[in-house]
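User: Okay, second chain of the day. Same drill as before: sequence in, structure tokens out.
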Amino acid sequence: MFVYGQQPGADIENRIGSRPILPLENDDVLEQNLANEIAHLRLEVKRRDNLLEERDRLLREWMLSQEAFKSLFRKFGRLPDGRMIVDLPTEEKTKLVEDEEAAILRVRPDLAR
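Assistant: Same drill. Structure tokens below.
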């Protein structure tokens, strides 16, 4: 507490002397705490790595299914007028894909890149 006219910290010795000095932690306790922290961090890293592997596996499966769908669509897909998708000129195929993407984005704007 500051008392007017007294130098700050003047009675620091009294305050320090009135409190017992806490013993420093034993080196073994510090080492065990550090070992526990390291073990915890290793578990967290392993958990993260497992989640990343699962994400990568799901992404590969999704990409494979998309490629399979596109391949089947090219082989067997037809327009309402009966024309095969595979027989369309590249510009018309691109336009169809862009139109479909725009329609999806109108419904699901959260998918925008």
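The chain has a mean pLDDT of 81.

User: Thanks, on to the next one.
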